[in-house]
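GlsB/YeaQ/YmgE family stress response membrane protein: structure tokens wanted.
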Amino acid sequence: MQGHAFLVWGAIGLLAGWLASFVVGGGGLIRYLVSGLIGSFVGGLVLQWTGISLPIASPFLHEVAVATIGAIIFVFLARMVV
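Answer:
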């Protein structure tokens, strides 16, 4: 994986975590990054399992939307456990 791919992956994670914080609360750069990166996996799995397809043409915005959905689910479930 090339260096710029890590930057894009990190940007998607930060943006998704930040957007999810508007719905479920929380804050902090590291928390945004972690929840966004985990959310990208969770969102991808949930959307694949449910068969939902987001009609977003831009690949970057599509990934941000999927990661945001996953981050919201992840943070909500984590708060239920703790």
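The chain is about 80% helix and 0% strand. Residues 3-81 form one domain.

Cheers.
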